[in-house]
Design goal:
The complex is a heterodimer. Among the domains of chain A are: 1-160, no CATH class; 508-609. In chain A, 63% of the residues lie in helices and 12% in strands. Chain A has helices at residues 2-29, 33-62, 69-74, 81-86, 92-113, 119-143, 167-196, 201-232, 243-268, 272-295, 308-332, 347-377, 387-408, 421-443, 450-474, 481-506, 609-627, 630-637, 643-647; strands at 508-514, 519-522, 525-536, 540-551, 554-559, 562-566, 571-575, 577-581, 584-595, 598-607. In chain A, the strands form two sheets. In chain A, strands 2, 3, 4, 5, 6 and 7 form a six-stranded antiparallel sheet that branches. Chain A is flat and about 80 Å long. The termini of chain A are far apart. Chain B is of the alpha/beta class. In chain B, 40% of the residues lie in helices and 18% in strands. Chain B has five helices and seven strands. In chain B, helix 2 (75-90) links the parallel strand 3 (65-70) and strand 4 (95-100). The radius of gyration of chain B is 20 Å and the shape is elongated. The chains are: A alpha+beta, B alpha/beta. The interface between A and B is large, with 46 and 32 residues.
Chain lengths: 651, 179
């Protein structure tokens, strides 16, 4: 009964999404305000229906209803309750449902916050979101319904993919998707502005908090995914330039560019068509990411669902959505002229550089991700590009970006003179260079060329981004949340760069074979292997190795990496043991049984690796702070007032 | 004007590449088997329908056969069942079933109820044989040639399309993919 109810709710949601799209777009176009007014009801109805469908599927999982194919394929009676709920997004069908749920949630949030937007504009935004939602609901119902029954029911389930049985992965997809889907809001704002054929600074002010909020979620999601890959996959890396990782990273880069471009549109009324294009591209890359992961076009460690018919559906959907938006752009963007100009050294220039460099970075990642596909379709043979391509090309656009960041945050709007900031910049740079080189050569005697450069740039950003807040604080001025958020986010960027530089330069990795009682010395640490013993879990059996870690003879920790064999799927996963010690991240993974009690053990020492994730969370926090600035709420309240009333906002 | 058309133009180009990519992906096989081009595992397994006679790879030497991994708990297997029955009716190549981690009584019930497409069905209660074959999930189908070499593997439900495009050309001696 429940699956049928869920299925029916999804069908109703599809119809309501269609109404939402129709009323939202046709209402304002035909100047029928009663149609526009009906949009919010459709939004509410659709959200209730989607929530009902999700609740039904969760109930099926919790009650172990193995007559539902999706439940039978992704759950098992031995699976703990927590994972029975998170198994909802353990495979393709449920992930889509999660996508739809989150889109409904964002749409409701926009509808609630839209009370102060001009009614026709709000209707258009919700209408465009309705189109996106309609597409995804149709996709789910037509190709991937999670409510299909099995007859006769399966006696027991096939179990959740063991590598997904992990708390990190249970929370990672919802957060990542919230970010992904959130860019739909910026996209809808952009489409609505193009449909109106009018874009002013108010538009940028409405769009900014939504974009920043989505970006913060995406940042958290990517960091969680990277953290999960680090400790669960057991390969001891935190970023693999894997197609699925890139799929989330490209919208992030584009979203970062969008945030900065929106700032210019907001403050100076410039970059209008460019901002629109970025808003379209950020969401397009989210959609493309979904396509790449789901269609089986690219094979990756993460993609667990692959089906060409689905791929064709998504491709058609992509062509309609992205192609439609870009056609609208080609038609309407030429109407949007900005009259103001700026000098070369003005803040606008730096933000333009920022945009160009970020877009280049996204383009290089894009090219690398699609290279195998392109060479394959042109019959050039199978080609794969890995870190040797991504690392240097990515660095090529990131280094100038970081170097310009410190200067850019001190540049003035419109005018090209740095004046009194010049001295501050020079002093902070010298301090950063001394500290950076001191750190690199003092703490670690060896280094690569890029190590002192990375450390110096990172420290320079930290120091120079603190100058302005400290100055304001000393003069007793308040610090608006938007400025504080920006500072925090830039601080996070610098921290991430610093940590990445250190990790990349000073990681030690060794694979050793150890017999019980044997020891291996890696870096400053000694690892003594005590042997293995069997362990039993709720739905797996495992061997656990015990290693005693000492540093120059002083005890550090006892670490117990496991190798688990899951009963149902007969899949072996490696549970790494991770320990922090003096900023170093020690990671142990149990390899193969070499016979006679000997085991291969992978030992890795990564300095400051945890800082990479902490830095990402700091960036996300900065985004959250900026998005919650009162300025945006005030701007909404004044949105219906004439243009001149908002022009005097502090900034 | 042209500068505003540029993004659309680039996107159209990308869409074409993606469309070609999709057309290619089904042939590529999503999960390549390390077994392809290598000898199939040697087995001697309990027979589901005839306990007196084991199902043995030695008896299959010199003939083409399909090795189909299934279970009554598996949704995709039900989906492909009609296709398997068609293959049986075509009588070109026999299907050997591997009833993977299943209950014998239920499996027999399934075959009586839905029809039996298999020449014989081996049972694999522990899942050990499936590991030998590198099975990733059910259903999976392997095509083994008379020399005992695995020449093709299909992951997921078998369709009449896969049968006529991938399997039949290989068995009937024409080069695969020439269609």
């Amino acid at each position: 009964m429940l699956p049928e109810l869920g299925h029916f709710a999804l069908i109703l949601a599809l119809l309501l999404a269609g109404l939402q799209a129709f009323f939202g777009i046709a209402g304002p176009a035909l100047a029928r305000d009663r149609w526009s007014g009906a949009v919010t009801s459709a939004v509410a109805g659709q959200a209730v229906m989607v929530a009902t469908a999700v609740a039904c599927l969760i109930a099926c999982f919790v009650s172990e209803d193995f007559s539902v194919a999706y439940v039978a394929e992704n759950s098992n009676s031995a699976l703990p309750l927590f994972y029975r709920v998170s198994a909802l997004w353990g495979a393709h069908e449920g992930s889509l449902l999660l996508w739809i749920l989150l889109l409904a949630a964002w749409t409701v949030a926009v509808a609630l916050g839209s009370g102060r937007l001009p009614p026709r504009f709000a209707a258009r935004v919700l209408g465009v979101l309705g189109v996106v939602s309609f597409g995804f609901l149709l996709f789910t119902l037509a190709t991937s319904s999670p409510f299909v029954r099995l007859d006769p029911p399966a006696p027991d389930g096939r179990d959740l993919n063991p590598i997904l049985q992990d708390p990190g992965l249970a929370i990672h997809p919802p957060i990542l998707y919230t970010g992904y889907v959130g860019f739909a809001v910026a996209f809808a704002f952009a489409c609505a502005a193009m449909l109106e054929g009018r874009l002013d600074q108010n538009w940028a002010r409405w769009t900014r908090p939504w974009t920043t909020a989505a970006w913060s979620f995406l940042t958290c999601g990517i960091a969680l995914g990277s953290f999960w890959a680090y400790y669960e996959l057991g390969w001891g890396g935190f970023w693999f330039w894997d197609p699925v990782e890139n799929a989330s990273f490209m919208p992030w880069l584009m979203g970062t560019a969008l945030i900065h471009s929106l700032a210019v549109t907001d403050k100076r009324g410039l970059f209008k068509s460019w901002t629109l294009l970025l808003a379209i591209l950020a969401f397009s890359l989210s959609l493309l990411g979904t396509f790449l992961v789901r269609s089986g076009v690219l094979v990756s460690v993460h993609s667990f669902a692959a089906d060409p018919t689905r791929g064709i559906f998504i491709l058609v959907f992509l062509i309609i959505m992205i192609g439609g938006a870009l056609a609208l752009y080609a038609w309407r963007a030429p109407l949007l002229r900005s009259s103001a100009g700026f000098e070369l050294g003005a803040r606008e220039s730096f933000l333009l550089f920022n945009n160009v460099l970020l877009v280049i970075a996204a383009a290089t990642v894009f090219a690398g991700t699609l290279a195998p596909l392109i060479s394959d379709s042109l019959k050039l043979g199978t080609l794969s590009v890995g870190p040797p391509y991504f690392n240097p090309t990515f660095m090529l656009s990131m280094l100038p970006l970081l170097a310009l960041l410190s200067v850019g945050i001190h540049a003035n709007w419109k005018r090209g003179r740095l004046n009194d900031s010049q001295r501050t910049l020079l002093y902070t740079f010298i301090a950063a260079a001394v500290l950076g080189c001191g750190f690199v050569f003092g703490l670690y005697s060896h280094a690569r060329v890029l190590t002192p450069i990375g450390a110096t740039l990172a420290l320079w950003i930290i120091l120079s981004s603190l100058v302005d807040p400290i100055d304001r604080w000393r003069r007793g001025l308040t610090l608006p949340r938007a400025v504080l958020g920006m500072t925090v986010a830039h601080f996070g960027v610098a921290l991430a760069v610093f940590a990445l530089t250190t990790v990349q330069s000073f990681t030690i990795e060794r694979d050793v074979a150890l017999a019980p009682g044997g020891t291996a010395t890696v870096g400053d640490y000694e690892f003594r292997f005590e042997g293995v013993k069997p362990v039993e879990g709720p739905n797996y059996e495992a061997v656990a190795g015990t290693l005693t870690v000492t540093r120059h003879g002083a005890p550090v920790a006892v670490m117990i990496p496991q190798k688990r064999n899951f009963w149902v799927q007969h899949q072996v996963t490696s549970e790494t043991a991770i320990r922090m010690h003096r900023g170093n991240n020690l990671l142990l993974a149990l390899g193969e049984d070499l016979g006679a009690g000997r085991w291969s053990v992978r030992i890795q020492i990564r300095p400051l690796v945890s800082l990479v994730w902490i830095a990402a969370f700091i960036m996300a926090m900065g985004g959250a702070l900026a998005a919650s600035d009162r300025r945006y709420r005030a701007a909404r309240a004044l949105a219906t007032a004439p243009e001149g009333a908002t022009a005097g906002q502090p900034g | 004007m042209t500068k505003f058309l540029l993004p659309l133009g680039l996107f159209v180009l990308l869409a074409v590449v993606l469309a070609i990519g999709i057309r290619h992906s089904p042939e590529k096989g999503i999960i390549a088997s390390p077994l392809l081009g290598k000898p199939a595992p040697v087995f001697a397994l309990p027979n589901l329908t005839d306990p007196a006679h084991e199902v043995r790879s030695a008896d299959l030497r010199g003939h083409w056969y399909l090795f189909n991994v299934w279970g009554t708990w598996c949704g995709g297997c039900r989906e492909e069942h009609q296709a398997l029955l068609q293959v049986r009716r075509a009588a070109v190549v026999p299907i050997i079933g591997l009833d993977w981690k299943d209950d014998d009584a239920q499996a027999l019930g399934w075959l009586t109820q839905l029809g039996n497409p298999y020449q014989s069905v081996a049972t694999d209660h522990s899942g050990r044989e499936a590991i030998e074959w590198g099975v990733y999930g059910a259903p999976e189908t392997f095509l083994v040639n008379p020399q005992g070499i695995v020449v093709y593997k299909h992951v997921g439900a078998l369709t009449p399309d896969t049968w006529s495009r991938e399997i039949l050309p290989r068995v009937s001696g024409r080069r695969a993919g020439s269609s």
